[in-house]
Amino acid sequence: MKYFYLSTIILFVLFTISCTSTKNIPYMVGVESIPQETLEQVAKSSEPIIMPGDLLEILVTASNPDVVKPFNRMGIVYEISGTASSYGSNSTNNSMYYLVDNDGNIEFPVIGKLNIGGMQKEEAQKVILNAITPKYLTEAPGVDIRFKNFKVSVLGEVAKPGVYTASNERFTIFEALAMAGDLTIMGKREDVLLIRTNEKGTREIHRINLNDKNIVLSPYFNLQQNDQIYVSPNASKARSSWTIPPALTLGLSTMGTLISLATLIVTISK
Question: Choosing a second label site near 15 at 20 to 30 A (CA), which of 57, 175, 182, 199?
Fold first, then answer.
């Protein structure tokens, strides 16, 4: 009977541990209960923000490509129809892109310095358009801005840690984790670390619970360029990775030898 009670207690403890670890596995528990109108309001503010260190491709277009040639780097001109013509440039050369400096400025042809840091693309397009028209051109050209280095880093307890680039200038936290092969079973889903550098160049630290349905309403659901995600190991992984320090191992070995020697001496002396 004693062994029966002991076995029952052990099984109960194992079952409790299993339930505790399993309940933290699913993502966005209960997300279907969030009203659709709430989701639609959040979706409107998900555009990336231009920040220091960003590399931008800015193309000024017009029906007559010659009139906008001075406003495009490396002599690349695009017509509104979508066709392109080159004036002796290499379109893969990074010198045709605009680097946003620490103050949020870019050096634009003809116009000079423009401050677009902290803006979404649509706002920056208006700034450039207003600088060109009507001072230099009477007919308003088209302005297209694209991020050339929209990337995020995913580290820690994921299948494939690394740096991942978004071709469509957009990453949700789940898209980034999916590209990294998802969290391992040892990853702590309720406490994911997000490190972000904002438009002022200041680092922000945020904790994210992937189990929480409200993550889809969070300002950190849609990632910004250069975000860093770290998934820490859960308690089970931490316990399994614990090792005895070499100094302690040596001490225990020495102590065991001394005890054995003392035991032998006592036995002989008898």
Answer: 182
